[in-house]
Design goal:
The protein has one domain: Cyclophilin, CATH 2.40.100. Helices cover about 20% and strands about 40% of the residues. The protein has 3 helices and 11 strands; from the N terminus they run E-E-H-E-E-H-E-E-E-E-E-E-H-E. It has an 8-stranded antiparallel barrel with strand order 1-2-10-6-7-4-3-11. A two-stranded antiparallel ribbon has the order 8-9.
Length: about 160
């Protein structure tokens, strides 16, 4: 089974997640290809979805991949702690933003939902944080909620 490593560089802590290749095969495969090289990004607290750390993937890294037009697989609107959802929004779909949005949503607490001002938007549940890292993930989420965005690095382990 493939493992993602999510390193929060400013906090000097990493968590791991198992890729759910059996439940979301095309999304999982696209992420395995994307992460042939580590991807730096920023982790921000989401505004609408509850206890979510939102990570926007770089447009230039995603636009020529299967993440640009993803299959709908293992969809959910009610992620649980540790669930990682991939959600794609085409250019201009989200508040007129002229670029596509490739969102890696890392959920750290209960009562989350993928409801936005435009309505429900299910995401592809393609990975899950390993059990032993869930408490650490919750602490990271609380820090980001209070202190703001943090630098991170996504990579395969």
């Amino acid at each position: 089974m493939n493992t993602l490593k999510i390193a929060f560089l400013d906090l000097d802590v990493s968590i791991r997640a198992q890729v759910l290749s059996d439940k979301a095969p095309s999304t999982s495969e696209a992420f395995m290809k994307l992460l042939e090289y580590p991807i730096p990004s920023m982790a921000r607290h989401a505004m609408y979805t509850g206890k979510e750390i939102s990570i926007q993937l770089p447009v230039e890294a995603c636009q020529e991949t299967a993440l640009h037009n993803p299959n709908k697989e293992n969809l959910t609107c009610f992620p649980q702690p540790g669930d990682i959802l991939y959600t794609f929004m085409p250019a201009y779909a989200w508040g007129g933003v002229p670029t596509p949005i490739y969102d890696f949503g890392l959920f750290y607490g209960r009562d989350a939902r993928t409801f936005f001002p435009a309505g429900w938007l299910p995401g592809n549940l393609f990975a899950r944080v390993v059990e032993k890292d869930l408490e650490e993930l919750e602490e990271i989420g609380k820090i980001i909620h209070v202190k703001g965005q943090q630098r991170l690095l996504l990579e395969l382990e």
